Amino acid sequence: MAACTLARMSDERTVRALRARLEHGEATAAQAVATLAAWAVEAPTRMTRLDACQLLGDLAGRALGAEWEIAERAAFALLEAARLADTAADRRGVIAAMGRGFRNIWLLPFMHRRLSDRDPTVAAAALRAAGGLGFPALEAAVAAFVSEAAPRELRRAAIAALGRMGAMTAIERLVPLVLGEPGEAAAALAALTEIRTPAARDAALTVLEHDLEPEVQIAAV
Q1: What is the overall mean pLDDT for the chain?
Q2: Which residues contact 145 (CB under 8 A, 6 or more apart)?
Q3: Is 169 a residue whose pLDDT tops 80?
Q4: Which DSSP state fits 93?
Q5: What is the pLDDT averaged over residues 185-194?
């Protein structure tokens, strides 16, 4: 067991070391993608595989100096990791990593399909990741979960995703929530604030005129 723990710690340091090298310009994004693509599917521990996926997600979003061609390679590596993921935890982890790939078009079809995954925890992860991808084309699909028919976890995830996406089309759907269930009201206020719409100011002022739950009042402030 001690040997396994040491191996895991070594692997984790390796992923962190590669990120540090990228941040300091000591490695190129192209070199990193080739290494990370292997680690994402072959590393001996889940933690290391998902750490590798997270870094691939950053590169897919053109962070750390990644040009578009490299971002494409990173997206394909993530899609392969998702194809091979054999547990819900692995699928959630890879999907979360994809959410770091801002506006990477190659991830869009996969994410859209996962919104309707039979496992609600995977669907919730896809909703959160859709917010990170930030594609207007996903707004309607995400907003459809802001309904009484959707499970609470999925509604909350959708509300947060719409805020992160800056979804102007969802404002009319979000505003009525600020006087509803406290958790969703606070989430809706946060989302409207991220969207940076005057409706957020008006909704917050409306909340402050009522004696509502502390978490809602704090969100309004």
Answers
A1: 86
A2: 115, 127, 154, 155, 157, 158
A3: yes
A4: H
A5: 84
| Predicted local distance difference test score (pLDDT) of residue 186 | 83
In this structure, of 115-129, 136-150, 166-180, 196-210, the range with the lowest mean pLDDT score is 196-210
Closest CA to 158 of 189, 186, 124: 124
Nearest to 130 by CA among 144, 142, 118, 145: 142
Contact 98, 57 (CB under 8 A): yes
Among residues 165, 157, 163, the alpha carbon closest in space to that of 194 is found at 163
Kindly calculate the radius of gyration of the chain based on its CA atoms and give it in whole angstroms. 19
49/148 Cα distance (integer angstroms): 37
Q: Helix 182-195 to helix 198-208 angle, to the nearest 10 degrees?
A: 150
37 in Cβ contact with 77 (< 8 Å): yes
**At residue 82, what are phi and psi to the nearest 5 degrees?**
-65, -40
Q: Which of 103, 26, 96 is nearest to 63 (CA)?
A: 103
Return the structure tokens found at 153: 């976890």
Crossing angle of helices 88-98 and 120-133, rounded to 10°:
10
Rounded Cα–Cα distance for residues 60 and 202 (Å): 37
Residue 1: partners with Cβ closer than 8 Å, 6 or more residues away: none
Q: How far is CA 199 from CA 77, 157, 172, in A?
A: 40, 21, 9
Q: How many Å from the N-terminal Cα to the C-terminal Cα in the chain?
A: 50
Structure tokens, 49: 């595989």
Q: Which token pair is 113?
A: 């399909």
